[in-house]
């Protein structure tokens, strides 16, 4: 019997090929979950720079749809060399997403997601597990982009104390010379959080930590690496005590928050980069220009705050003006994990407000569980002024 010996190098190449095949097979299966949506150039990005996906948070299927949209655009536009995914989340998460892409560190990402809640988790909750899986898909995709780059960019402010404290401590503990009052103050706050005595007292935390950071800023700047100091500084300057932000941080839409998000996204602009943006539907009102739409918006009680998307589309200083495609994700039926009762979602609040009166017509256009609707091809007058595309998912599952 002949014994065939295989060299380590050859075994490595075979193993690598199998891993690559497995990744591509996974991508194919994921893409198959959104049948024919993006075939034949259904979404044209030729003159665009920013593809915005407006979503309702905590919907399981939206992660698959979002990934498939972005993956398709990346893989079918080989002439674009750089991509960024803008995410409505904090710089705390961004710090660990950078570690994932640049240092292949998925362990730290899982740890921050365990602290990305108002109480520490031993295992990832369904919502954060879905996020982790979502980010890991892009990590694997980034490894296939030969000569092209993919980066995450979180543009929201920091709202969750536990993730902020965890990230700051994680940065400071790497440096033996940071036995400062600032480190002691953060450690003290961490001990209070562990005892759940300061869990939602944002203002008290911001005031104390913000003041302490300012006192130790020069020392920290001299000790930390440029990257660590950048993240620490950017996280600190978003605190109300430092940026003098008077807004109510429990409100989903405030003008201060919209202004801050606009500034961060706009400052991210780069001529050589194509941007994707995932954002909650609270923030994606387009600047309507027809009188027949405006009364409906006011009647539906839409916030008076100028949305970040309105700023991106019409502000003179916007780098993305006239370069935006907007796509709304709409769930119709939500199946709750702890109940067998379905809640019908084709009610006011899930289609963009100005389209509520057309939802029966829009429902008649649905061809399967997931339907892409090009608003320029509908019978609704001025529909493209509301959104460029609707993607309607008939049956969705909630994440808690």
Describe the protein.
- This protein has about 400 residues and is an alpha/beta fold.
- It has 2 domains: about 30-90 and about 255-395, no CATH class; about 160-245.
- The protein contains 14 helices and 8 strands.
- Strand 5 and strand 6 (about 340-345) form a beta hairpin.
- Helix 2 runs parallel beside helix 5 (about 125-140), helix 3 (about 90-105) runs antiparallel to helix 4 (about 105-115) and helix 7 packs antiparallel against helix 8 (about 200-225).
Summarize the model shown.
With 400 residues, this protein is of the alpha/beta class. The protein has helices at 8-32, 60-75, 91-103, 106-114, 126-142, 161-172, 181-194, 202-223, 226-237, 240-243, 255-267, 294-299, 308-314, 359-364, and strands at 50-55, 82-87, 149-154, 273-280, 324-335, 342-344, 370-374, 389-397.
